[in-house]
């Protein structure tokens, strides 16, 4: 599974980013607009929703439960300081996708018994797309965390995030994670659509 997370770029609008990664075969888009107003995020979401429908891709919105509910997109991704997932589930109902951010095995194990659909675990390495960065996990850290949570009987899907490039895909998947989230490596590629396609090829190996 490849999740693409939007991020401001001097080269492309967020809508252009999404169009390119969808053309490259990505089926999961997270609209992330950290400093945008509600209306700005809503306007961009309304441009992206038809593209996701055309490509039969999942769309989640970062942090904003109200907008997720208003626009009836697939779901929401919640940071550690956003609305609690229990409250988001009450507001969005049983069918919405709810993802949460985690930095440690304890963060993930704390989700046991709470109705969430996946965990975004990171950061893998340093990334400029996140302002308040938690300690770097690295490959060995992912191995240890996955071993700990699976050993404790937690089967929540885990998506690695944070400074990941195409060369990290195979070794990261070998740690036992379920998917990868990418942003900068795709946006900054010479051909984002082609780069996306190549990432997906490695994920399919």
Q: Helix share of residues? A: 40-55%
Q: Give the spatial strand order of the biggest sheet.
A: 1-2-3-4-5-6-7-8
Could you say which structural class the secondary elements and strand pairing correspond to? alpha/beta
- The gross shape turns out to be globular
Q: Note the main sheet.
A: 8 strands, parallel, barrel
- Which sequence of SSEs, written as H and E, runs from N to C? EHEHEHEHEHEHEHEHH
Low-confidence stretches: none
Number of strands: 8
Q: Quick check: average pLDDT? A: 96
Number of helices: 9
| Share in β-strands | 15-25%
What is the distance, rounded to the nearest whole angstrom, between the alpha carbons of the first and last residues?
Answer: 12 Å
Rg from Cα: 16 Å
Question: What is this structure's SSE topology?
Answer:
Elements: E1 2-5, H1 14-23, E2 28-31, H2 38-54, E3 58-62, H3 65-71, E4 75-78, H4 85-92, E5 97-102, H5 105-109, E6 118-121, H6 138-151, E7 158-160, H7 169-173, E8 179-182, H8 184-187, H9 192-203
Parallel strand pairs: 1-2, 1-8, 2-3, 3-4, 4-5, 5-6, 6-7, 7-8
Helix pairs in contact: 1-2, 1-9
